[in-house]
Amino acid sequence: MTRPITAGIDGSEESLAALSWAAREAVRRDLPLRVVHAWRFQTHDALDTGDRAAQERWVREAAEEAVRAVRERHGGLDVTTDVPEGDAVETLTAAAAGAEMLVLGSRGHGRLMGFLVGSVGQQVIVDAERPVIFVRAGDKASDEVAGHEVVVGHEGDPEDGAAALGFAFETAARRGATVRAVRAWTLPPVFAYSPSSLQLLDEAGGLEPFERKNLAAALAPWRERFPDVHVVEHVEMGSAGQVLLSVSGTAQLMVVGRRARRSAVGARIGSVAGGVLHHADCPVAVVPPA
């Protein structure tokens, strides 16, 4: 089954930038594009919507207008439009389940509903089964130029983060871009070391060589699968979020793995993904575990 690239829109500048990004990526991957405008009937003195049917018509017209511009730029692209009424998180999560990826504006505020505000955006990331890409307003195709890289973060053991690495390599291959694989490390407390870990560190020659060895092992299967993709191995001491953000200025896309958790106060994404989403200068892909 062919999965479309799905863009969630709400009429905001951010969501329209996300739609443009999704359309370009659909063309690169030769996939159809599905555009979803989630909405709920709302009464508001400032909105002259009349009734439910009138409000739905307004939403549909707004979605069709956005799609019309995409069709003009990408004549051969297969585009469908859906305007389901319902809860934003549930609608977008369901849309992501059947998609190659879900593309959203990072700060969407439509006149009827802004679906990417605070905890709602986090909930979509937590619940989505597929990669979720966040695009800021102002993103342009001109930003995807030669020399700009697809940056991907890696942490943990070599077998960890395979889904994020795979997404980064496939995206870079489609764009003819370099993958910059980033692994940050810090000095842990001495008591965190077990005798076995101390032996591994000693065999590796120290902490940084140990981290480089882990990153090289994690990249090996992807280098073999995508031999034409140039790879830069970036190992640096510091917090993962800070190191990733330091290279975001020249990135086409930032790819991070998802480490989400639920609590009594709602869903929470990991600190690295959260920091990158708030501060990166480029689109960010959050990829769930395989």
Automatic annotation (TrEMBL):
SUPFAM superfamilies xref list: Adenine nucleotide alpha hydrolases-like (SSF52402)
Pfam families in the cross-refs: Usp
UspA domain: residues covered: 1-136, 150-288
Similarity comment text for this entry: Belongs to the universal stress protein A family.
PANTHER family for the chain: ADENINE NUCLEOTIDE ALPHA HYDROLASES-LIKE SUPERFAMILY PROTEIN
Full protein name: Stress-inducible protein
